[in-house]
UniProtKB/TrEMBL annotation:
The chain crosses the membrane at residues 6-23. It comes from the Bacteria. This is PTS EIIB type-1 domain-containing protein. Keywords: Membrane, Transmembrane, Transmembrane helix.
Length: 112
């Protein structure tokens, strides 16, 4: 008689696992971040410094007037703010994604 209970529990667990896997497969996958798009855009400008503050990438330019924020937005930048010669933005994703982008941009800009 106990095997009916065990069989029922196994069936319920199988249905639960199948449902969770079906829901996960339908969730849209996050597009990978295109670091090259950001470096291509920012390499055109005279970057004075780059910093990472409160999950935002902060870049100071020699001449902010030549920076096109629309290009950054098309590359995936969010929350773009320009104050003086400084532009701040972040990307969708985790704080680690923003930190990774900052590190890659920092390495690339220092090579220029």
């Amino acid at each position: 008689m106990w095997y009916y209970y065990v069989g029922g529990i196994v069936v319920v667990l199988a249905i639960l696992i199948f449902t969770v896997l079906a829901i996960r497969s339908k969730t849209p996958k996050k597009q990978p971040m295109d670091i090259n798009a950001f470096t291509d855009i920012l390499s055109k400008y005279n970057v004075m410094s780059i910093d990472f503050t409160r999950n935002k990438i902060v870049i100071k330019f020699d001449d902010i007037d030549i920076v096109d924020p629309n290009q950054l937005q098309e590359a995936g930048a969010k929350g773009i703010s320009i104050v003086g010669d400084v532009i701040k933005f972040y990307i969708d994703g985790t704080p680690e994604d923003n930190r990774l982008l900052f590190e890659q941009l920092s390495k690339t800009i220092k090579r220029m």
